[in-house]
Amino acid sequence: MMIALKNISVRFNTGTVDEVFALKNISLEIGGSEFVTVIGTNGSGKSTLLNVVAGNIMADEGQVLLNGRDMTRLPSFRRADVLSRVFQNPYMSTAPDMSIAENLLMAWLRGKTRYPRFSLNKKLMALFSDRLLELEMGLESRMHNAAGTLSGGQRQAVTLLMAVLQKPKILLLDEHTAALDPKTAAQVSKLTTRFIDAGQLTALMVTHSMKQALEMGSRIIMMHKGQIISDIPAKEKELLSVEDLLGKFDKIRKKEKLTPEMLANFVRQYV
Amino acid sequence: MELWVGAMNLGFLYAFMALGTFITYRYFNIADITIDGSFTLGAATGAILIVDGWNPFLVLPVSFLAGACAGFVTGFIHTRFKIDSLLAGILVMTGLYSVNLHVMGRSNVPLMNHPTFETALTRINPGLPQEVWIGLVLIIVMTLMWALLTAFLKSDLGLTMLATGNNPVMISAQGVSTDRMKILGITLANGLVGLSGILVAQYQGFADIGMGIGSIIYSLAAVIIGQALFRGRKVWLSVLGVICGAVIFRLAVAVALKIGFNPNDLKILTALFVLLTLVISYSLKNDQKDNGKMRMWIRKNRRLLFALFAIALLGWFAWKSFYNQSSQDHSAKKTRIGIVIANQSDLLMKTRDGFREEMTRLGYKEGVNCEIHEVNAEGDIPSNKTIVDHLIADHTDLFLSISSASTQAIINKVKDKPVVFATVADPFILGAGSSPVNHPANVTGTYGHAPVGELLRILSTMYPGPRRIGTIYNPGFPNTKVNLGDLKREIKTFPRLTLEEASVSGTNEVLQAAQSLASKNICAFVLINDLTVFNALESVVRVSKAHKIPIFANDADCLDKGALLVYGYEYYTSGVQAARMADRIIRGESPANIPYERFAHTLLGINKDLVREYRLNVPDSLVKRAEATVSGGKYSKKAYKLPLRTSSGKPVQTQK
User: Fold this and answer.
1) Which of B16-30, B250-264, B337-351, B435-449 has the lowest mean pLDDT?
2) What does the alpha-carbon distance between residue A108 and residue A104 come to, in Å, rounded to a whole number?
3) Across the interface, do B170 and A92 touch by the CB < 8 Å criterion?
4) Fold of B2-258
5) B47 - beta bridge partners?
6) Per DSSP, what are the bridge partners of residue A38?
7) CB atoms within 10 A of CB B501
8) Does B169 sit within 8 Å of A78, measured CB to CB?
């Protein structure tokens, strides 16, 4: 298994009256080269799940195994040799005062010791230029510009490239197209699929769009109140439509006595 | 010329420190106050090793390492225990004060008679003026430093450090421990600061416990000036900017001194300048959510604000220089006397008054046959050196230094003009010769430390039987070390007396120290000459009155402030003696033939009111000997005469 979560629980505000379970006894196994999308309502725990895998949030109980190694207690930077990550906020993934080339260098050095030497030579610049060409955004001619001068879409594309530059085993995508306009979002989504396919990567993508969840990836996980309520394998997924997914949430509505207004709100938010 | 080149050189040496601050401030947005301590640590470590016989160049990496260790501790505390960086810096800086005192073993280590980088360079001087030659060498060194640091910051490691400050989330996602990067950055920065410390110490000729105070604001000013000079994100320009900023800052100090500006005012100007720049750079940030009216106003009017600041400054300068011009008249036959004073303390001011009044009595009139130019360093140690450079540039004929710190700065620098010092406890530990007659050819002066043995003898006759006495001192002053050594040596001859000590690091600790001594059942406070305790004498008096424990002091000026008995010299007479020496030099005698003089006049004073109040037994002979008394709340002093000496040192006649 590439990712194996065993009985993971995460509590917030432990020891106070506001104590809540962000994740409640979750177990999940994801095999090599699998592309899993995670959907769920606000507060369902999908982002927490991603953060537990990334090491930004430590599980209160349970075990996290990545690529067969127990990494439950390792901080995020020590998991970087196995996984890389793209954030929702385009500002979070690049250093704005550094050039595109320097940002790429930071990613290229992932998993290597950073000595006071100069790796950014002509050969590496040529490599970066080739890779930037793949983004089809004309960034190869702007390699010396500060990353802070890029648009949100361009930044996310560069970030995506940074995430796969040193091929990771696992790619984590945290609603990475949510902050973009529809046209750019589509472009970034296309790049995502291409990179994942080309690298045969194991990917875990959190999304707020059921449409995107259906279009991308091979397996869907639905979360609600800190638990996985549905795990839809590839075969079944191909037959599903947005309406079917909504139907699943409708069932929860009945169970939880969700008002129709809240459901309407869901549809507005997620479709 | 010398003034400007000297200021530039000092700027270059301080640039190492500014570059350290550049790393912490620009890369991690930390104003690292550790440097106030690590600057001194670097200087202390290096100075001690040089005195020990080390090569002055070999100590540079050691000082770098010493500073780096201090930085590591700050970085570790900050990242590991999540303590705010400013607080972590304050903690380490505070602790370093004690460490530095331990490293030096005293508060001041003179390097006067030891090889420094300056003496090494002098040996290979191709014939240029000293300062210019050093300046040239430093320009080459700084160019190398510039290239080296730029290269480091452009390397994989340097860029990773930049990314750590720029976007910690991103860089930790790339497998970098932001904590380790921060520790590395702060360590490196403090290493540079330590290096700067030993370089400055070698250049000014001594390391001193107080030399690092205010470093953070100076180096922030240098970084900010550099930022203003070269905008943008080009590393090589930023580094150059910081070096220039450090030099510009030191030149500004020289300008201020040149036009007779009070260096004390320079501190508030620096603070205002840094504040103004910070406020404006804050207002210029785009990604701030709050766009308050004030921010927008500052943003719109930033140029106006800078212009107003500059105009106010220029106006002040212009007014000052006009004022100075009108009071100065450059004609040929006047002797130009330059006075350097370390700080505004009462004792030094009394020495100054003694000198000036005696000069008047000896027939010197300002503006008629002499020009007296007095500059006060206001407690800022590096300023002493710049003041000396300034006085040299001002064609000073004779230097008077009041206090050990000023004397040290002058004798290191001035070799061809006569120097007279006053109110120095021990000129020999400053490196000025080995005996009163065997001393540098251009230097003479008055020295001495109060006769603590005699004070103890008087005390033991008044208090028979085994007794405890208590003393308070600040180990941060060089003179105190001498006086304390005397006290400890002398007390051995009085086996019935045992000494209780309390050391303080500032005036606000004196009260508690006095209270702690009072609780140890002492029969008297014995106060050696110590500026800190003198400035906080009221605290000791308060405890003395509350517990009916009398004060015996070596400082004659304590009598009318609440001491029971004083035996020592008056600082005023130190100035008088210095004036007479200056007179002999102006009349043509060579300072080489004028032996150092111990203070000629010691004064015994008794507070009769307190004797009655405490019902003490004071021998009549002692009361008769007393030249100064307090009785019925009134202070009175018998007139006395100072013997005037010839070059042979023999008293010949009493004057007036």
Assistant:
1) B250-264
2) 6
3) yes
4) ABC transporter involved in vitamin B12 uptake, BtuC (1.10.3470)
5) none
6) A206, A221
7) 13
8) no
The predicted pLDDT at position B261 comes to: 66
In chain B, the percentage of residues whose pLDDT exceeds 70 is 92
Indicate yes or no: CB of B233 within 8 angstroms of CB of A146. Answer: yes
Q: Domain residues of chain A, as ranges?
A: 3-240
| Span B207-252, pLDDT tens digits | 888 888 888 988 998 998 888 788 777 899 999 999 999 998 888 8
Topology of the domain comprising A3-240 = Rossmann fold (3.40.50)
Choose the closest CB to B156 out of A96, A109, A146.
Answer: A109
Give the least confident one: A198-202, B468-472, B632-636. B632-636
pLDDT in tens, A116-138: 999 999 999 999 999 999 998 99
Closest C-alpha among A42, A86, A39, A35 to residue A206: A39
pLDDT 10s digits, A143-188: 999 998 999 899 999 999 999 999 999 999 999 998 888 888 999 9
Lowest-pLDDT range of B175-184, B294-303, B562-571: B294-303
CATH number (3.30.420.40, 3.40.50.2300, 3.40.50.10860, 3.30.390.30) of B335-448+575-598 reads 3.40.50.2300
Which residues in chain B have their CB less than 8 angstroms from residue A117's CB? Answer: 155-157
The predicted pLDDT at position B643 comes to: 56
Domain residue extents for chain B: 2-258, 263-327, 335-448+575-598, 452-571+599-654
* B335-448+575-598 shares its CATH topology with B452-571+599-654: yes
User: In sequence order, what DSSP letters do the residues of B513-540 get, joined into one string?
Assistant: HHHHHHTTT-SEEEEPS-HHHHHTHHHH
Name the residue among A76, A97, A162 with its Cβ closest to that of B166: A97
d(CA B45, CA B635): 48
Pairing label, strands B602-607, B565-569: antiparallel
pLDDT at A201: 93
Strand A227-232, strand A219-224: pairing? antiparallel
Residue B463, token pair as written in the block: 């208090």
Quickly tell me which residue has 């009072």 as its tokens: B518
Which of A95, A119, A162 has the CB atom closest to B166's CB atom? Answer: A95
Contact B170 A96 (CB under 8 A): no
pLDDT in the model for residue B646: 39
Tell me the average pLDDT across B412-433: 88
N- to C-terminal Cα separation, chain A: 32
CA distance linking residue A161 with residue A105, whole number of Å: 11
Nearest-angstrom CA–CA distance, A212 and A200: 20
Q: Which residue has the higher pLDDT, B182 or B274?
A: B182
Of A95, A105, A117, the CB nearest to B167: A95
Question: How many other β-carbons are positioned within 10 Å of the β-carbon of residue B141?
Answer: 16
End-to-end CA distance of chain B: 44
Which residue has 């800052």 as its token pair? Answer: B249
- The Cα B306–Cα B273 span in angstroms is 9
What DSSP assignment string belongs to A121-182? -HHHHHHHHHHHHTTTSSGGGGTTSBGGGS-HHHHHHHHHHHHHHS--SEEEEESTTTTS-H
Q: Which one of A77, A86, A104 would you mutate to disrupt binding with B, by most B Cβ within 10 Å of its Cβ?
A: A77
CB of B591 closer than 8 Å to CB of B420: yes
pLDDT at A270: 65
Q: What's the DSSP call for residue A77?
A: G
Residue B152 scores a pLDDT above 50 = yes
**What CATH class has B452-571+599-654?**
alpha beta
Q: Do A98 and B158 touch (CB under 8 A)?
A: no
Q: Name the DSSP letter for residue B366.
A: B
Are B608 and B636 in contact by the 8 Å Cβ rule? The answer is no
